[in-house]
Amino acid sequence: MFAMAYPFGWLFPLAQTAFVGFLGLVLTDWMLLFLRKPKVICKRELNPVFSLSDPNPVRLFVENQSNIYLKLSIADELPVQFQKRDFEIKISLPSGQPFLAENKLVPLTRGVYSFGNINVFASTRLGLVERRLIFEQPRDVDVYPSIIQMKRYELRAMRHIAHDTGIKKMRRIGHSYEFEQIKNYVQGDDFRSINWKASSRRATLMVNQYEDERSQQVYCIVDKSRAMRMPFEGMSLMDYSINTTLAISNIILKKQDKAGLLTFSDVMGATLKAERDTGQLNRILESLYREKERPGESNYELLYEAVRRLIGARSLLILFSNFESSYALERALPTLRRLSRAHLMVVVFFENTEIRKLAVEAVHTTADVYRQTVARQFLQDKREMVTKLRQYGIQAVLTKPQDLTLNTINKYLELKSRGLI
């Protein structure tokens, strides 16, 4: 209006009036917000610890206890690991109105996550002035290996089924030789388990019932070398292995076996002797929380010496590693063969899902054909690694990272039901 008042002089008084009115509104808005601090309550609620790779709820409780209508913009200072610089919640609250907002955070690395202050920017209906209210609520939260995943797979393993689409049942092959009781025969029982002496005494068919053998030693061995730093969906292969180690250790203890832990790279890391007491799972959890990847190559000779020194009786050894080439496997194979002579060895390594996608995508140029041929050769090399390991009596599991936990648990239950451990 001031600009238009140059050619049209009659607009100048109107512009002055509008300007004074605008200043009055700004002053009124300022007085509502700054003469007396708006009574706003804002609290953050977190779980005591976060679970790696799982959605963890973060709840923000806000209440307007002032006597005016407020528009609020809430900016929570999230841990730097999430790299969320645009987190903001905008709400409008009448006087006395509460509000609860819930946000899901998925941490992809273990360690300490530091939450900062909560910044609330308040304005009235006019929206001409804004005041920042700072709620100092700094808090550190530890991100542990996935406890949520551990409990989920515990339920599946105890019921011997999995409910995810396309995932097979956890089969139980045959039975072991740990006698439990004699019971009446029912349709479907194995004829080979009929106890003829008990049947003749009772004049009805009786069968022997067996249970899984207990108190077997099972060690999870986690490779911490640079080969395990390869990322998949934002999380390293080592962290996938750590989540799986915690989940399967819990199932091992529930099955009345003894769970132990070894980690290694160019140096030895955590060493926990296999035990079955109530505090073993917590010791495994704390050890896994502290483990870090190392830049060096794996020293399998060092692993062999540690296993020979620490593990006396025959045990099940589950090795989580990654072999990206036949050369890498050939380098480790002599040590793995020596370990398999004294123990039941299971080698779990990873399929490169990005290369699999490349191997099946459409081709249009000669360069595409070349890349796809190399990708298919790479996948064939992985399958040959599995065959070579099995030729030497070493159990092998080639799995996608997202299926690691389920496939490892399936393998453990299969070996246990077959009486191999």
Structural notes for this entry:
The protein has 421 residues and is α/β, with parallel strands linked by helices. It folds into three domains: 36-144, Immunoglobulin-like; 147-174 and 212-417, Rossmann fold (3-Layer(aba) Sandwich); 178-211, no CATH class. The protein has ten helices and 20 strands. The chain has helices at 12-34, 147-159, 196-202, 237-254, 280-290, 300-310, 326-342, 353-360, 366-391, 404-417, and strands at 40-45, 49-51, 56-64, 70-76, 89-93, 98-105, 111-115, 118-123, 131-135, 139-144, 178-184, 206-211, 217-223, 231-232, 235-236, 258-264, 268-275, 316-320, 344-350, 395-399. The longest helix has 26 residues, at 366-391. The radius of gyration is 32 Å and the shape is elongated. The protein starts with 11 loop residues before the first helix and ends with a helix.
SS elements, strand count? 20
Number of domains: 3
Shape label: elongated
**CATH H level of the largest domain: which superfamily?**
von Willebrand factor, type A domain
Q: Can you count the helices?
A: 10
Roughly how much helix do the residues carry, as a percent range? 25-40%
Lateral arrangement of strands in the main beta sheet: 17-16-13-18-19-20
Order of helices and strands: HEEEEEEEEEEHEHEEEEHEEHHEHEHHEH
Main sheet summary: 6 strands, mixed
Q: By helix and strand content, what is the structural category?
A: alpha/beta
Distance between the termini: 89 Å
The protein's oligomeric status is: single chain
Unreliable parts: 161-174
Strand content: 25-35%
- Any idea what the radius of gyration is? 32 Å
Instruction: Just give the CATH class of the largest domain.
Output: Alpha Beta
CATH architecture descriptor of the largest domain: 3-Layer(aba) Sandwich
Round the mean pLDDT to the nearest integer and report it.
Answer: 88
